[in-house]
Amino acid sequence: MRRIQRFRSDTRGIEGLPVRLVIALVVGVASLSVMMNMISGISGLAVIELDVHPEPEVVGPGEQTIEVSVVDPDGQTVSDATVIARGGSARLDGVETATTDQNGVAELRLTPELRPNQGDGTIEFEVKPPAGSEYADERGNTALLVVSG
């Protein structure tokens, strides 16, 4: 009986409880965050990044036809991808688009222009992968170099 009274009168047990709960909650949330990042990183490994290879790689100002190959990291071409060309430091009138054929090549008719006193510039490419594929275009792609003269 003496033992029961001692337990009832002891208030020290509750003092550390809220602090311990807060610490457990913070550690739990941090652990959950790390695990979620690991899971999203694993699914990110399944995505295959695409790049473009313009041919020719260097052109002068004026109208011309550029063949752009869409390739995966292994160098294999990708068909049914949409290639979008936009002016970078070189100018284009609007945006040009084309879809790659069964050989993974898109043909774009471009008319790049340079500003006065500008020696060179770039045309930027973006790729929209085929629908339902594991491909992605999240990083920068190879640009087309436009050189005056």
Instruction: Please identify which CATH superfamily of the largest domain we are dealing with.
Output: Immunoglobulins
What is the makeup of the main sheet? 5 strands, mixed
Rounded to the nearest angstrom, the distance between the terminal CA atoms is 103 Å
> How many β-strands, per DSSP?
10
Spatial extent as radius of gyration: 29 Å
Give me the CATH fold name of the largest domain.
Answer: Immunoglobulin-like
Report helical residue fraction.
Answer: 25-40%
CATH architecture of the largest domain: Sandwich
Assign the structural class, choosing from mainly alpha, mainly beta, alpha/beta, alpha+beta, or little secondary structure.
alpha+beta
The secondary-structure element order is: HHHEEEEEEEEEE
Strand-residue fraction? Answer: 25-35%
| Average pLDDT | 83
How are the strands of the biggest sheet laid out side by side?
A: 3-10-8-5-6
Report the uncertain regions: none
The best one-word shape is elongated
Quickly count the domains: 2
Top-tier CATH class of the largest domain:
Mainly Beta
